[in-house]
Amino acid sequence: MKIKRNFLRLKELQKRRNDPISALEVIESFEKVRIRVKVPYETAKKVTLFLGEKGIPKSQGIPMLIQYGLSDESKEELERLKDEMESENGRNLWGEYAVMKFRVYEYFMENKVMVINLPRMLDENRMLKRRLEMEGLTELIPKDEWDNWDKSVIDAYYRKYVFGERR
Amino acid sequence: MLDKLRCMEEMFSRLVFGEKGEPAVLEAFLDKSTYERFRDYVMKNRLSESDAVVKILERGMANYWLFEFKQMKESYMHLKRLFEEFKKDNELLKAIQTENERLKNILEKADLKG
To answer: Regarding beta strands B14-16 and A32-39, do their DSSP bridges make them parallel or antiparallel, or are they unpaired?
Structure first.
C-alpha cells in the first residue's frame, strides 16, 4: 500500500492560490491522507456497481463506504438498528425527515428576509413608540423584548440568517 | 485549465481498472481520524492492507442502509432542534412587524380624531 500525504507541490500551490475555490481544495487536501491499495477485480466491480446503482460518485462513495465499514457498532447494535429501521416508526421517519428539512428551510428563508429588514423594523418600532409618547398615549406603549436590543443582537441575527453561521 | 483538472482529478478517491480480471487500484482520501481507525483495524486483525480494505468495503456495503438510517436519525434530531429555534425567531420577528402595524393604526386613528 502506498501512503502519501497529499501535499501539492509548491509550484502548483502558488499557481492556485489566487482562486478561492482552488485554495479551499488545497486546504481540504492538507487534512486528508491518501491511501492506495490493490483490490481484487470482483470487489472493484462490486463497489462500482453498488455506487452506480445509488448514483453516488466514487469520489464521495469510496471514503463513505470505508467510513461505514470501519464504524465500531457491534453486531447487536446493528441488529437493533435494523429492527428500528424496519419498524413502522423507522419507515415513517424518512418521510418526516424530508418534511422537517423543508420546514426548516422555509423558516430559514422567511427569517432571512425579516432579518435583512430588522434594523429598519426596529427603527420604525422605536419611532412609533416615540410618537405615541408625544401624543400622550403612553398607556398604549407596549414593553417589548426588543426594546433593549443593541447592535450585537442584530449582528447575531445577521450572522445566523444572512451569513449562515452557526454558533 | 487542463492542469487544474488533472490536479483536481488527482485529489479524488477512485478505482483504476487494469486488464479484465486483474486487481484494480483503489485510491482514497480519508480524513485523519478514519485513516487512524483504518491503521488500527489492520494491526488489530493482522490483515494485509489490501485484505483489510476489501473487508471494510464489504461491511460498508452490507450495512449501507443501516448507516444511512443512523445518520438520517441524527440529522433529524438536529433539524428538530433547528426547527424549534427558527420557529421561535420567526414568531418574535413577526411580532415586531405586527406591532408596528398595530401602532400605526392607533396613531392614524389618533390623527383623525385630532
So the answer is: unpaired
Can you say how many angstroms the Cα of residue A142 is from the centroid of all Cα atoms in its chain? Answer: 38
Longest dimension (CA), chain A: 86
d(CA B12, CA B34): 16
Residues of A in contact with B49 (CB under 8 A): 1, 35, 37
Which A residues, 123 through 152, put their C-beta within 8 Å of a C-beta on chain B? 124-125, 128-129, 131-132, 135, 137, 140, 142, 144-146
SS (H, E, C) A21-65: HHHHHHHHHHCEEEEEEEECHHHHHHHHHHHHHHCCCHHHHHHHH
- Half-sphere exposure at residue A1, Cβ-oriented, CA atoms within 13 angstroms: 20
Rounded to whole angstroms, the Cα distance separating B109 from B111 reads 5
| B34/B31 Cα distance (integer angstroms) | 5
Query: Does the structure's ipTM exceed the value 0.85?
Result: no
Residues A66-104 have pLDDT tens digits of: 999 999 888 899 999 999 999 999 999 999 999 999 999
* Number of other CB atoms surrounding residue A87 within 10 Å: 11
Helix, strand, coil distribution of chain B in percent, nearest 5 = 75, 10, 15
Please write the tens of the pLDDT for every residue from B6-45.
Answer: 445 456 888 888 888 899 999 999 999 999 999 999 999 9
Q: Report the C-alpha gap between A122 and B43 in whole angstroms.
A: 62
> What are A36's strand-pairing partners?
A2, B27
Distance separating alpha carbons of residues B71 and B80, to the nearest angstrom: 14
Contact A69, B60 (CB under 8 A): yes
